[in-house]
Amino acid sequence: MLLTIDVGNTHTVLGLFDGEEIVEHWxxxxxxxxxxxxxxVLLQGLMGMHPLLGEELGDGIEGIAICSTVPSVLHELRExxxxxxxxxxAVLVEPGIKTGVPILMDNxxxxxxxxxxxxxxxxxxxxxxxxxxxFGTATTFDAVSARGEYVxxxxxxxxxxxxxxxxxxxAQLRKIELAxxxxxxxxxxxxxxxxxxxxxxxxxxxxxxxxxAAELSADDPEEVTVIATGGLAPMVLGESAVxxxxxxxxxxxxxxxxxxxxxxxx
Length: 266
What we know:
By secondary structure, the chain is of the alpha/beta class. Helix content is 36%, strand content 23%. Strand 2 and strand 3 form a beta hairpin.
């Protein structure tokens, strides 16, 4: 079994692969204050009773692949792999790891590891050119060329960040549930905010993606495949006109691919 761990700013997603199939997954909050020992206990609690794994921490785990946008958490996970999974091959996505994705950026080290992993999975699953829209703490748009190159992207405030900002900065507004309103024209403050978030973000996605597609493939923008991922993607899927595919485990699939490219099979 391969354990994959994607550490985001808000949530951490874990996936368990049996070959190419993801057989289990978990989502937990990201807490930069957790120590390696706390993380090990958490992992044991999540996986301890899984029927495909043993009762002891590490039983049944044959490999680990990790990417993180939070450096302090990556540091602690490195310690977890050393202390609790010492005999298990582990791949932590950082400079020097082979991804097979050329990064055509002014400073390639600036690009988040998760965005490169998403690009790798997208090109493997759908080919290029393509755009990956990841609905996380930020909404990121990543452009991948027909040759599988990461050519750049767009970063916008995420859905939850926008909701929080409205509640904090609006004197008569408050934090709301992220849900579909009865109609576009809200009949109360909550519905008006829900409408603004849902349809506003759908319009943002369509507008940004159309412009990116025109640059990626000037001759035929329609050939650009648009893939949505991230925890909040389902909220926008039904309202966006440009999303072609929804792959909730895109980053975990990318981590599996990176592991296979960096750990020799003997």
